[in-house]
Predict the structure.
Amino acid sequence: MKHHLITVDPDVTMGKPVIAGTRITVESLLDRFAAGETMEQLLAAHPRLTREAVFAAFAFAADALRSDVVYPIPEQAA
């Protein structure tokens, strides 16, 4: 995968994974997509961000979740 585009540094964003050379966290990209932003909106808002870096963030997140850990989803109140 293209994880070379993702870095982790305890002195940057408290060690959260970021797009290399930026302070844009993988978490924030996932949040923005989940909220309905498009790739074009993200790229327009962050000129240093590339499509390749966004896909690297997705791959990083997928790999992080591809473990033997179970993530329970709390039941929603009806």
Observations:
- The chain has a mean pLDDT of 89.
- Strands lie at 6-7, 18-19.
- The chain has one domain: 3-65.
- The CA atoms of residues 21 and 28 lie 15 Å apart.
